[in-house]
Amino acid sequence: MYYSRYFLPTLKETPSEAEINSHRLMLRAGMIRKLTAGIYSYLPFGLTALRKVENIVREEMNRAGAQEVLLPTVQPAELWQASGRWERYGKELLRFKDRHERFYCMGPTHEEVITDLVRKEVRSYRDLPLNLYQIQTKFRDEIRPRFGLMRSREFIMKDGYSFDIDDRNAEKTYWQMYDVYKNIFTRCDLDFKVVEAETGTIGGSFSHEFMVLAEVGEDTIVFCQNCDYAANIEKAEVVTPAISPSERPKSRKEIHTPNKHTVEEITEFLNVSPQKIVKTIIYLADEKPVAVLVRGDHDINEIKLQRLLDCKTLIMAPPGIVKNLTKAEVGFAGPIGLNIPIIADNSLKNMVNFVTGANKTDYHFINVNLDDFKISQFADVRFITSEDRCPRCRGELEFKKGIEVGHIFKLGTKYSEALKATYLDAQGKEQFIIMGCYGIGIGRTLAAIIEQHHDENGIIFPLSIAPFQIYLLAIDTKNQKVLETAEKLYGQLSSHWQVFYDNRDERPGIKFKDADLIGIPLRITLGRDLKKEKVEVKIRKTGETLLIPITELKLNIEKIMQTL
Amino acid sequence: MYYSRYFLPTLKETPSEAEINSHRLMLRAGMIRKLTAGIYSYLPFGLTALRKVENIVREEMNRAGAQEVLLPTVQPAELWQASGRWERYGKELLRFKDRHERFYCMGPTHEEVITDLVRKEVRSYRDLPLNLYQIQTKFRDEIRPRFGLMRSREFIMKDGYSFDIDDRNAEKTYWQMYDVYKNIFTRCDLDFKVVEAETGTIGGSFSHEFMVLAEVGEDTIVFCQNCDYAANIEKAEVVTPAISPSERPKSRKEIHTPNKHTVEEITEFLNVSPQKIVKTIIYLADEKPVAVLVRGDHDINEIKLQRLLDCKTLIMAPPGIVKNLTKAEVGFAGPIGLNIPIIADNSLKNMVNFVTGANKTDYHFINVNLDDFKISQFADVRFITSEDRCPRCRGELEFKKGIEVGHIFKLGTKYSEALKATYLDAQGKEQFIIMGCYGIGIGRTLAAIIEQHHDENGIIFPLSIAPFQIYLLAIDTKNQKVLETAEKLYGQLSSHWQVFYDNRDERPGIKFKDADLIGIPLRITLGRDLKKEKVEVKIRKTGETLLIPITELKLNIEKIMQTL
Predict the structure, then answer these.
(1) Low-confidence ranges of chain B (pLDDT < 70)
(2) Vertex B550, ends B545 and B556: CA angle to 5°?
(3) Where are the domains of chain A?
(4) What is the pLDDT of residues A52-105, one digit of tens each?
(5) E strand or H helix at A145, and its extent?
(6) Cβ contacts (< 8 Å) between B136 and chain A: which residues?
(7) pTM higher than 0.80, yes or no?
(8) Which one of A108, A401, B119, B216 is CB 3.0 to 4.6 Å from A140, fit for a cystine?
(9) Which of B36, B91, B99 has the CB atom closest to A99's CB atom?
(10) Does CATH place domain A17-237+399-450 in 3.40.605.10?
(11) CB distance A117–B41 less than 8 Å?
(12) If we measure between CA atoms, which residue out of B340, B322, B338 comes closest to residue B330?
């Protein structure tokens, strides 16, 4: 490809809209352009890179026996009503009416549609297993789209769905997909972790996320330094071992704490550590109040809490209700005398002589102990912290930021029951199909690759993703001999590799800068040494440069490519 | 691919929803399934065929120097308001609001989005020409979607847009795309005609449609049997040569014609031919009334009329207005005494002693002549008929039905002016970019291929589109030797061709029927003659069968493929 004929509008300046490196570089390297909030166009260079990711995904999925389909973007409301997600999905589901006033949505995911397709075609156990996937444009009306392709509203996703006759086979498929995903992200040259994950609105019984490690990641992942336990912090279990009390219970005292509402204020005022404080937070679970107790330095994990309470809605109680229940201003709630169910985090089991609110404005209790009130249930309802230990092996934990590029779910019968997707087993008995689903954000994966592969000068594409493998560049474009050699080399190299030939009549500095910016793995420069029939080969990744005789060029490139 | 592992739900019965062959066969051959009105899922077999069409399009576009991009599906209203199409596009444009109550639409076409992209990147004449295309899912909320992929609401389209510095270059690009399109449809093995076409809501200065000839086509095309003139009937010009009058003008008479409103009724009642009658139709052009006169056997072409009147809206006047203007019931309007502008079709120039309404309920005039009233303008405002002659060479005309698979437009500056897409010319002067646009319905092309390539037993895929080239089939699947040979052949043939291996434990009849139905070009059957180391090769297209020694199979297949 000749640069002069290629639509590659590179930018010298960093666009103000971009906050993270991948976004910045994808704009600067002419890969994408914003149409409107969270909606991007792919330019030729960006689309070619995107297709490289897609093809890796396609190859690995096909190799595992999955089959590609293409499902519609526009989906009828009826299917979503049948699964119950029409109401539950929230505002990310873009709903609209057609000209006949019938309701539809733009597909944010395709469990309903694929289950509808499969239930109509599958009759018997002989028609199973099926593993179908698509690579397709989806829409989620994110409230705050940001970071370019990392969190956009319109995005390209590979979503796959498996259909098995029983749990054993479904799990086999699940773990096969787990391996396929590892292969895909390895081929994308990503440094990633597979972590246990929450199932969210998709639902199902268990799930893993594939997390690319990066400072800008929006997810926090926790992993053990000793064993291979790793989880999304939303999911990570906390195991609280019993420890023998360090002090004897003292007798409770009410203390005047005027205007001290927060843990910080109480800590300072009473001169105690946050570990000595118990926070009392009142929630409405399906509109019924419940109090949750956690230590002052811990945070409640509402996903765990909602799962524990098995409720449809969970919100913090508004101030009016808190005041009504505690007979005090907000900030002074405590378990003593509180007449609603009380859930205590497991860590409370080890606490003695702690501080709580007194259910009386401007008063707290000190030296509270577990005998002083009634706990309905102890449970793990908080986020894990660096002071906790690995729930598997008690090893030390590490925390990192991650970008979720893949997510796999064992769905079980959630959708097959809702939409009545059944088959007849060998005994002629009707059974629900067991499902799994498997997603990869294609655009986000591309962004994550750039997030992990760049330097201050630009992108450093892994060979597997690079839109071109070679950037060919002549310095003295006024010299006829140089141009002829460049053309000849371009022709020769193009029969083996995808070559990008910078034939522009521009200053060398501009060409070198663009070459670094767009990050093609090898740069071949026709410069001074052309007289000696030599060209310069620069490896973008290492910065290494080599002077190589033209006659030996092909062989040398092959060798270098093997090291990339 | 093994049939047993492939999601190919073929149907024995003809689905009731399908009215035309391609739709019927795509359903029966497990290529597509309907999700809801005008919205389809592509199953693996259908998707593979679709991708073959896409790749032909991509190869030919790339070869011509066009570059692939991918634009968003969801488009902000602002751009459509700027082009004026937000109001004008009608109900086919699916409009909706996002969570922040901002208006968007699902892109039915991308002139606005691409012009917005290009105007932001192009500064100078050195940045042009650009020829960008995409293959992407579009949505048009058709009032009556039908015929499967022929007229669906969600569909896949190749849409391309060119940007040139002046008319000469823009036309060069236009004719280059014209040739590209001919190559594409030729490679798809389609019998097609290129016809002059109307520009419709896209706008622009001239346009061609690529029409696949088929009885089920929704367009009528007219072409000359003598020269190469061909046009969509909406567009076809009518040239009316002057002929000397066959009779002398007689004097006008008012005739009582009780309850005779229509041409048929008058023809019968007065015992005259429709050629002797002039219909007077009253329209509202931008709400102003105008009468249009055409011969009784002719039909008004409202597209021509609207272009002539240069009006934004054109509707037939409602009965109330007609009564008011003619002082008579509907059905008795005539030009005499009618006090509004009168447009007469050119064919009236040759009429003498004709019949018109009398603007009086239950009365007509006979022996009317052109002197009897005032005509504002003669013009070509009707559809061409088989009695007309070629507007270029006066040759005889032929009419056929066609499926529009491609449409190219010279847009000129319609969108670049509306969206201010300019460049600086060599003299530093700001100029509007000259645009063209080029569409291909990918799914519709696939359907058209099947419409032209099938017989009573099923599809007959052209080699270029067939998802597999060879259908391998063993009859006696209980025989271990047969199975081993089949597996071995499958392996050998798969290294040269895409082979579909029907390894199902089914009766031969079912396998043969499915092979015919899904239309793979060659069927290789391991039958009785396997003992003699021979297999049967059947050519789907001709029905010809050959017994070929296994050792000579590869060579023979290569030869046969060359004839397909």
Answers:
(1) 201-204
(2) 55
(3) 17-237+399-450, 253-379, 468-563
(4) 999 999 999 999 999 999 999 999 999 999 999 998 888 999 999 999 999 999
(5) none
(6) 137
(7) yes
(8) A108
(9) B91
(10) no
(11) yes
(12) B322
